[in-house]
Specification:
alpha/beta, 11 helices
Amino acid sequence: MSKEIKTIGVLTSGGDAPGMNAAIRAVVRKAITNGVKVKGIKKGYQGLLNEEIIDMQASSVSDIIQRGGTILGTARCMEFKTEEGQKKGAEICRKHGIDGLVVIGGDGSYRGAQALSKQGINTIGLPGTIDLDIACTDYTIGFDTAINTAMQAIDKVRDTSSSHERCSIIEVMGRNAGYIALWCGVANGAEDILLPEKYDFNEQSIINNIINNRKKGKTHHIIINAEGIGHSTSMARRIEAATGIETRATILGYMQRGGSPTCKDRFYASIMGAYAADILCAGKTNRVVGHQHGDFVDFDIDEALAMQKEIPEYQYRVSKLLSASL
């Protein structure tokens, strides 16, 4: 263990995700086991600048693994995007004796961790986002819970859509990434799946698909629309006008970010949190933890942020095949 690391901080930043509490718990308990003190930073980078910093013991994270959200809170912080704000954050870390920091969040949070590293604070990032849009990892904390929450909601909408012989457009989250839409589209047996990475804005092809399916005797039609495309309500009005079929939009919204995390999110977040504490205590900095090909790994933040992530082509082709009414 590096003698330089005596106290580490942990914060959650950006959008909350189920499993963040499991990661916090693992960071705290693994660091304490390594003989390192831990401080919790409330409300992300905004809380760091406001010095909302608390001491944490093993008991501080009791009975939180099953809870959604984040016990430390989270917030957006425009000030931390400035060099002045980043320098202030590093100075506050030094003032409180924090010489290592674990940041749990998405790519925007990683950029903050990257900046702190350049200011001399050892930093490790954990992928906490339901969007699965971080290129260096096959898994992000919260994605599994979010897709299961959305899947169950879509099943319920499908029941009433079938009863009323409607077309239903169901909008799921994901920012500019279509992974939630892709997974739910396949898992829920949707007739159309609209992904930001693939959508050509040819609404007429969707209308034609609805009409053709109705002629084949299909009494309902489910469209999974990704947040990055949006405009589900206006799309529903246009489809109803063009087809004569009652069409309703349902926007699932923030319900996807809440709720008790699944076993996978609890387990993976726990291992990632412990891994982050270990490599930080070993003196590593400017790293992000990921999961690839069944292993937990870490990458340089600069390298990770430069990576690009695309919807797997084979998965997309299969989703199109399975949605067709043959």
